Amino acid sequence: AAVCMSRYNYHNSVKSTIGAVRLKSVGKNLFNPYSNNMTTRGNPNITRLPDGIQIISPQANTWTYVVFKNIKLKPNTTYYLNYNAEVIGSGYNLVYVDYAGTTTPIRARKGSFISPADGLIDIRFYSTINIASVGSGMKYTNIQLEEGTTATAYEPYRESNAYVVAADKDTGKILELRSL
Predict the structure, then answer these.
(1) Exposed end of the chain (fewer CB within 10 Å): N or C?
(2) Which residues of 43-68 are buried (b: 16+ CB within 10 A; e: fewer)?
(3) For 147, what's the count of Cα atoms within 13 Å in the CB-facing half-sphere?
(4) Which bin fits 109, alpha (ψ -120 to 50), beta or left (φ > 0)?
(5) How many Cβ atoms from other residues are within 10 Å of residue 93's Cβ?
(6) How remote is the C-alpha of 117 from its chain's centroid?
(7) How many C-beta neighbours within 10 Å does residue 120 have?
(8) Cα separations (Å) of 29 from 32, 33, 170?
(9) Using CA atoms, how far apart are residues 107 and 111, in angstroms rounded to an integer?
(10) Handedness of CA 17, 18, 20, 26 (dihedral sign)
(11) Distance between CA 120 and CA 167 in Å, rounded?
């Protein structure tokens, strides 16, 4: 180990998370515009924005949308979805909150809804429908998904992670952690 540390001294600042428990904290806005759990229809051009997403159709007369999939919420709890929408060309402003893995809507457009029993939802952002011109689409900004019955002032999505390691108070040895 000493030889390795002398050759690769950048390892000196690396801390192991083996035996640690990750605690994830998310602010009031539960919508992550940078989520990679996303699918599309119609091969749209997507621009991720700090507070939303822009979706442009490269083809005429095409249904295009983006779906953020499997967003985990508390089951049977009231949430509110809010956003600003800017139409580009002949874009189509429509957003659905769907039961995860389906196109069965829980809610259309902005407003409150009750999460399903499994707590999983998809959010589908339309860009164009079958009467759109090339280059049309939508810009959705200030997207906020929050617990409650009314919209509150926009706050960006914030996530932080902390790793907690349990050590024996006498020996300092890391204890084996098991899930509860």
Answers:
(1) C
(2) ebebeeeebbbbbbbeeeebebbbbb
(3) 10
(4) left
(5) 14
(6) 20
(7) 17
(8) 8, 11, 42
(9) 8
(10) positive
(11) 36
Question: pLDDT tens digits, residue range 91-112?
Answer: 999 999 999 999 999 999 999 9
Q: Which two tokens stand for residue 165?
A: 């390691």
Q: To which H or E segment does residue 39 belong?
A: strand 38-41
**Residue with the two structure tokens 């600042």:** 13
> How far is 144 from 2, CA to CA, in rounded Å?
50
Position 26 scores a pLDDT of 73
Within 13 A of 167's CA, how many CA atoms are on the CB side? 9
Model pTM above 0.90: no
Q: Which two tokens stand for residue 65?
A: 């949308």
CB proximity list for 148: less than 8 A, separation 6 or greater: 78, 79, 80, 112
Q: Is the pLDDT of residue 39 over 80?
A: yes
Taking only the tens place, the pLDDT of each residue in 155-165 is 999 877 666 66
Rounded to an integer, what distance in angstroms lies between the CA atom of residue 34 and that of residue 32? 5
